[in-house]
Amino acid sequence: SLLLGLVPEHLGDGPWPNLTQVAETLGVTRPRISQLLEKLRTPWQRISDETGLADDVHRIVTALGGVADAGEVARALLATQGSAATEPSRTRQALGVVRAVIEADLARGGDSRFAARRMGGRMILALEPEDPEALPADATLDWVKQLAEVADRLAAQRPVPVRATALHALRQVAVPDRITPLGDDRLLRVAAAASRTASVGGRGEIYPRGLDAQEAVRLTLAGISAARLQLTPEVLTERVAGRFPEAESLPPRPALDRLVSAVDPSLAWNGTGYGSPTETNGSLLSTQHGLTVLGTRLIGPPFDAIDARLRASLEACGYLTLAVDPRRQDQAATVLATAYGLTAVNLTELLMSAAKQLAATSGVDWGFLLAVDAKDAGSLDRTQLDRFVGEALGSVLPGILDSAEPLLLVDAAPLGRYHQQRWIAELADLTTKRRAARWLLVPHRDIAGPPALDNHVAAPLGADGYLTIGADFLDANTHPARESAS
Fold it and tell me: Pick from 262, 202, 253: which is nearest to 416 by CA?
């Protein structure tokens, strides 16, 4: 029971205790525990083979790139096998099953399919290669240890390193020969899982476990309109947990009021949520309805100022977020693409096409995906759909974004709906090297806070915020850039 983590009161540092911890708990010697473990491995091996669990674990680790945190494998087993237990026993028992499979595998000696090593308080698993000339799994684990050390250094940095910065640092660790490099997401997660202090944020940033609650709130609210979010304590807690799942827990009110005020002095508790005293008391729905019916005139900088910013961005291969009145976004896309020689990329059409292609090749019914899409955003099925969409975009978007031509990205709202805004955030990062300019065009109204994607996800902004493309710019009868282009 101790070995498989089934005795909660004796779990110590985690549900996968080492033999010394078990020996000390039972008041016997470590060699005695080793003897008992050898006896246990035989029945565990028979059970894991007969039930197919050993093959299941092997498939899971293979799908995760050949290296994984044991906790990841346990969660994947639960997703496929299910469990009648409730949390926290459910996860603890699943991890115990993974340990039994790995311990049984080690009894095979030279025929073992796995290697395991404790790093940062967690067990990291790696597959032994099928190629006899390839390096053993221990070489993979040595590499992961180096990644973990980099992740620990990143977690200690301030400000919190963004995804592109973290990936750049991790890619500096040389991959051993004949070991398949990990994809970006897996690289981040494996490095953090094996580290002592690091975790991966919702946007791919590396942050310290137990991140200060005030800093977590500050980073979460950056660029977000509290009025549009209807920022209640529940919404704030949910958003912080989604962005930084291993951050320090937020305090209850009234301590939370003081924390929010320290982050943004303009926000105060108004009886139902956090807002600015200058905001209207109307509901979000009625406010949006009023905007839709009455509209407002989005006023941008003078023509020459906009033109200068755009040309400078083109010359510097820069990134810009361009905000335009929703009623003029099609016109804006045409004007910008024509006047400045950009290729327009419709992200909604690209996403739909890539998702349909992946569904066809994976044998997934499109009608099923549409049904899942209608479910609650916090459901497990929707989370899986987000991953599916991410995989679909990953098959086509990197090649497009690496184009040598300047690009105008339009209709990006679904990136917010499926939590894929990281694709744009990487382009906006100051450390990103672009082959040509990358501009994001988003519909926006000047009284609605910073521009946002679907689900009120903040649109990634460049170093200078966003540039408003006003009606006067679009309606200008004489456009120098158009004349020179013609």
Answer: 202
